[in-house]
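User: Hello! I'm new to structural biology and keep hearing that structure can be predicted from sequence alone. Could you demonstrate with Rieske [2Fe-2S] domain protein? Please show me the input and the output so I can see what each looks like.

Assistant: Of course. The first part below is the input, the amino acid sequence of Rieske [2Fe-2S] domain protein. The second part is the output, the predicted structure written as tokens.
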Amino acid sequence: MALIDLGPLTESSHTRYAIHLSNGKRLVLFRLPRIASSESRPMAPNETEDGWIYYAMEAECPHAGGPMTEAHVDIEDSAYVASCPWHAYDFNVETGESSYGIKTCTFPVIVQHGKVSLKIATKENVELSRLEPVSDQVKFKHGPRETAAESPVYLDDNATMCEWCVHILKTSNPEHKIELTTHLFSLFATKEQSPSPMRLGIGVIAPDEPVREEQSKVEPWQIPKAGKGGTLKSRIAMLHALANIEQWAIDLAIDICVRFATFHTMAPSQDLSRELPRTFYYDWLKVANDEAKHFSLLRARLEELGSHFGALPVHHGLWESAAMTAHDLRARISIIALVHEARGLDVNPMTIEKFRKANDMESVDSLNVIHNDEITHVTTGHRWLTWICEQEHTDPVHVFRSNVQRYFKGAVKGPFNAEARAQAGMDKRYYEGLGGHSSKANIIAGG
């Protein structure tokens, strides 16, 4: 049995860490608040005196290798459960057991003498290679604010989720938009674990289009080619185009929550029709939170390179797809999540390689974060289209392909990142030999 020192408690401040061991093994360390109990009990070996509790488990989901460092953590039956972001397989963080009948490995954590240590059953000489904090840190642009107009407007405590969504869609300042989006997700997620979850406010009407600050707007096909990334000008153009996509992606994830809040599945009888469960809203608010993070990373990198968001023309191609699918949740998920987002999985590795060749490693780091998150976004789209189809006894592949042929402009072109698509649940049946209706415009993919 090896006891591996993970460092002093005073340096442990994040909610999760990626543990890299000298034998190549990767684990995830969770630092969570102790769950309140009505019964007094002695402090466990993995607890701290100030109310934190530590758990360690495999960093890859045993189902398909999904990143448990990005897991969604819930409380169920007075225990913490971590759900894989790819296919929602859930695991008790203490026992490793899952409701799906599989199990992951968990490892005892010991808190003593002001240190956090990990126990592993091994005869090898295993050491800690590095401990990396996993952060959803958004790069807010907080300079001095001299007037109230420079600060975002927050709704009161009684505001519903749909009221918040409409408020964000009507917020034109991108910095305010990311602050409000991250606040809404945090508020919704926190209240989900309380006796008084946030009211949905179903019935609030979504605006026809999000409000935007004045910028130079062109059609998607009029955006100048960014080049191969060999020059600073080329890299700024690529980052600017991606930032534009990410800003629209915030609104798209927010819009799906309010626009389709009245959605019910179609069923042979009204008794079998189902409304969307609350986890639907949690998942898409999490996507919106990620997109806000992505926009902030790209905006910050543009400024570090001597430019700024808004310095170049932008297009509204993604919202055109949203408007075309505003009447049908199945179509919206198919086109936005499973075409545009999935196309991002195809092109991201090539984009990252261009920045790597230019030795722009700061941009590479941000783009890697974005790529990994976008796998989970395609997973979210696939999961909810599949859920709807299960309720309606339809084939998700057929529903997806039918919607693409009806609402997508142009062919769904390769090359495809088959590995990343498969990780997100999309096998080749979804996209091979697929095309939409003809158009002279090819809308830039991503989000």
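User: So the tokens describe the shape?

Assistant: Right, they're a compact way of writing down the 3D structure. Reading them back into a model, for example: The CA atoms of residues 138 and 293 lie 5 Å apart.
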